[in-house]
Amino acid sequence: xxxxxxxxxxxxxxxxxxxxxxxxxxxxxxxxxxxxxxxxxxxxxxxxxxxxxxxxxxxxxxxxxxxxxxxxxxxxxxxxxxxxxxxxxxxxxxxxxxxxxxxxxxxxxxxxxxxxxxxxxxxxxxxxxxxxxxxxxxxxxxxxxxxxxxxxxxxxxxxxxxxxxxxxxxxxxxxxxxxxxxxxxxxxxxxxxxxxxxxxxxxxxxxxxxxxxxxxxxxxxxxxxxx
Length: 227
Prior knowledge:
- The protein has helices at residues 24-28, 52-56, 74-83, 90-108, 123-129, 135-145, 168-175, 201-212, and strands spanning 63-69, 115-118, 148-149, 154-156, 179-181, 189-197, 217-225.
- The chain is of the alpha/beta class.
- A five-stranded parallel beta sheet has the order 1-7-6-2-3, with helices on both faces. A two-stranded antiparallel sheet has the order 4-5.
- 34% of the residues lie in helices and 16% in strands.
């Protein structure tokens, strides 16, 4: 495990608060996002209204919030967190996700979630990796937002094929019946966290079972969204 640095992850200048991870200058100069649909998160003509695809066939979730598209430096941090146990990045990435949500909240009048959940790993993959890369990110966010986080709120019932190796249609079939809601979610507004959203098949399936279980709404919070 890497120790929490006392310098900015990008420019290496000293930080007043080490847990922030980025200095104010580097934070302001992170690559900006294009105009994106607030529902699916894909590039759109308007950031205020759902895109044509979402009007025609909306995803099961209600809002998509993410820090960056899949490019450095955020994509590099996600890979280090996911594959190289760089858990010292968790607080900084949680802060970036919180700032993204606060900006979306001001723009779209979003309510604070009642419950945070992470996309679960199958027990075999969790054993191989040793941890869920989004667990500490979720714990930080739950602390700052003063809301509940349930690490085992959704379980993965069976091991699926690796999603990024499959086409969109195959991804949906691969995930059908793969997840189960393990806690009562009726009437709750839920934020579902993932490190990267690509086609959205995984979060779509989990959103479906959460809403079928009585959740009031589901937002997707992701570090990266492939555009």
